[in-house]
Design brief:
Number of helices: 11
Radius of gyration: 24 Å
Structural class: alpha+beta
CATH topology of the largest domain: Aminopeptidase
Strand content: 25-35%
CATH superfamily of the largest domain: Zn peptidases
CATH architecture of the largest domain: 3-Layer(aba) Sandwich
Distance between the termini: 44 Å
Largest sheet: 9 strands, antiparallel
C-alpha cells in the first residue's frame, strides 16, 4: 500500500497516502479535520476550522508575487464510503488499502477517496513547499460535500479573501469546467401497519448485485443499470403473477451513487415457489442480461429460500410502493439543448428501504435549469404521492452558471497550450460542484474547476490515473506562477 508514496509527483502522492490512513467518510470527519490541523501546525502554516467544519489554510505570497490576486484552492475532505459486498472494511476506523495496477491507483474492495483526496493532497504539497512560486493563497477544504454540501452551504460570506477560485474536483485531466448542475434531495416516506405473514407461505430472498453503480452525475448517461429499478420490474411481475407479497427491500446506500445492489424478501404460496424461480427469476435474468449486455458484465440475479418472516407489507401498500418505484424517473430526463452531449436534467433513485413498518425512498434530482429540476422532482412526487407517501426536499444547491468572459479561464487555456501543445477543453458538467454554492456567497469570485483523471468515483472501482496527476500538477504550478496581478 505504501508504494504510492513513491509515485511522481511525490509532493502529491505522499500526501494522498497520508490521507488514506485517516478515516474520512462523509459525516465522520473529526479524525481527518484534526489530522489537517495538526499537519499544518507542525509546518507553521496558518490553519483553522470554521463553524461548518471547513478547514481553511493560508500562505503568504512568494517573494516577488505579492502583487498577484489571491487564489483560493478548494476541494472537499470527505469521501463516499462504498465497498464490495465481500469487503469487511470499516470506513470509520480502517485505512484505505491502495495498490498500483498499471497506470492506475486503486483500492482493495472500497472507494479510493481520490474524489476529492487528490485536491487536498495537492494543497498540502503546495503549502509545505517554499520553493513553489505563487501569489497569496487560501486553501478551503470543505466538509461533507458528498452528502449535503454542508461545509460550502454553511461557509460564512466573509471567510474567504481571494478573488480567484480553483476548484480541484473535476475528474478528467485536460478539461476545465466552467459550469455545473444544481440539485435537490427528494425524500419520500410512508409509515404503515405491518401484518402477519401466512403460516402456509414460503419465503425467498431475491438479490441483484454486481452492477457497476457509479457517480449519479458524471455517469448517469452511460446506460448503467439501477438495481432498484431492475428489482421493481421483477417484483411487480412476482406480485402480479405469482401471488408474491413484499416483506422487505434494501437497495443502494448513497443518494449520489447509482445503486449497484438491491435485495428483497418476498412471501408467496409454497406451490408457486418453483414457478417463480423457473419462470419469473430465470426470465428476468435473461432480459436483464440482454438489455445490459454491453454495459453490465458482472450482473447477477439470485434467488434463495429463506425463513419466512413474521411480518409483511399489506398487499395494497406493497403494490403501491412497487408501482411508485417503477414510475419514478431514473436517468437523464433531458440534454442541454445548446450542448446536446451534456445532460441537463436527471434523477437517481439512490436508496430504497422498506420494512419494519416504514418505507423510505431517497432521490437526487439534478439540473442546470431550475424549472426542469422542479419538473423532474414533480414527476417523481406525483408517483410517490399516489402511493400515499409524504414527500419532502432537502439540501438544494444552485447550478453554477458559466462565465464566458472569465479571466482565469482564458489565462489557464494559454498556460495549458504552452505546457502541453494542445488545447484544454472547456465545458460544463452534470455533476454538482461546490462552485455554485460558493459563488452565491462570493458572486465576484472568478471560478474554474479542473483535476487529474479519475474513473468510477463513488464505487469500489474508483481509480486515479497516475500519468494524469503529473500533468495536472505541472498545470497547477504554472497556473499559480502566472496568476493575474491585482
Amino acid at each position: 500500500m505504501s508504494e504510492i508514496k513513491n509515485l511522481q509527483p511525490q509532493a502529491v502522492w505522499k500526501n494522498f497516502y497520508l490521507l488514506t490512513q485517516v478515516p474520512r467518510p462523509s459525516g465522520h470527519l473529526e479524525k481527518a479535520q484534526q489530522f489537517l490541523l495538526d499537519w499544518a501546525k507542525e509546518r507553521n502554516i496558518e490553519a483553522f476550522k470554521d463553524e461548518a467544519g471547513n478547514i481553511i489554510m493560508r500562505k503568504a505570497a512568494s517573494k516577488g508575487y505579492e502583487d498577484r490576486k489571491m487564489v483560493v484552492m478548494q476541494g472537499h475532505i470527505d469521501m463516499v464510503p462504498q465497498k464490495t459486498k465481500e469487503s469487511t472494511h470499516n470506513f470509520e476506523t480502517d485505512p484505505i488499502e491502495t495498490y498500483v495496477d498499471g497506470e492506475w491507483v486503486k483500492a482493495k474492495g472500497t472507494t479510493l477517496g481520490s474524489d476529492d483526496g487528490m485536491a487536498v493532497a495537492t494543497m498540502m504539497g503546495i503549502l509545505e513547499d517554499d520553493t513553489i512560486e505563487h501569489g497569496p493563497l487560501e486553501c478551503l477544504i470543505t466538509a461533507d460535500e458528498e452528502t449535503t454540501m454542508y461545509g460550502a452551504e454553511n461557509l460564512a460570506s466573509d471567510t474567504l479573501q481571494g478573488e480567484i477560485l480553483l476548484n480541484l474536483d473535476n475528474e478528467t485531466e485536460g478539461e476545465m469546467v466552467i459550469g455545473s448542475a444544481g440539485g435537490v434531495d427528494q425524500n419520500a416516506v410512508l409509515e404503515y401497519q405491518e401484518e402477519e405473514t401466512d403460516g402456509g407461505d414460503a419465503a425467498v430472498k431475491v438479490v441483484i448485485k454486481g452492477l457497476l453503480g457509479g457517480h449519479s452525475g458524471l455517469e448517469i448517461n452511460q446506460g448503467r443499470a439501477n438495481a432498484n429499478k431492475l428489482m421493481g420490474r421483477l417484483v411487480q411481475d412476482a406480485m402480479a403473477n405469482f401471488e408474491a407479497r413484499l416483506c422487505s427491500w434494501v437497495g443502494g446506500n448513497m443518494r449520489n451513487a447509482i445503486p449497484s445492489h438491491a435485495e428483497v424478501v418476498l412471501t408467496l404460496p409454497k406451490e408457486n415457489v418453483a414457478a417463480l424461480k423457473e419462470d419469473c427469476i430465470a426470465d428476468w435474468k435473461k432480459v436483464f442480461a440482454d438489455e445490459f449486455a454491453f454495459v453490465e458484465k458482472q450482473l447477477e440475479l439470485l434467488c434463495e429460500d429463506v425463513e419466512r418472516p413474521a411480518k409483511q407489507v399489506p398487499a395494497e401498500i406493497g403494490d403501491n410502493l412497487v408501482n411508485a418505484i417503477c414510475a419514478c424517473h431514473n436517468g437523464p430526463m433531458r440534454m442541454i439543448p445548446e450542448i446536446p452531449d451534456v445532460v441537463e436534467t436527471s434523477s437517481n433513485l439512490g436508496i430504497v428501504e422498506i420494512g419494519n413498518g416504514i418505507a423510505k425512498f431517497t432521490v437526487l434530482v439534478r439540473s442546470s435549469r431550475d424549472s426542469m429540476r422542479e419538473c423532474c422532482a414533480e414527476t417523481n412526487e406525483s408517483a410517490f404521492s399516489m402511493a400515499g407517501m409524504k414527500v419532502t426536499y432537502a439540501h438544494q444547491y444552485p447550478a453554477w452558471q458559466p462565465n464566458p468572459q472569465s479571466e482565469i479561464v482564458a489565462l489557464m487555456q494559454k498556460v495549458y497550450k504552452q505546457l502541453f501543445g494542445t488545447d484544454n477543453r472547456v465545458g460544463v458538467v452534470h455533476a454538482g460542484l461546490e462552485c455554485g454554492v460558493i459563488g452565491a456567497k462570493y458572486p465576484k469570485m472568478d471560478m474554474v474547476s479542473f483535476g487529474p483523471t479519475l474513473r468510477s468515483p463513488h464505487t469500489p472501482n474508483e481509480r486515479c490515473n497516475i500519468p494524469s496527476v503529473e500533468r495536472y500538477w505541472q498545470f497547477v504550478l504554472e497556473t499559480l506562477k502566472e496568476t493575474p496581478k491585482k
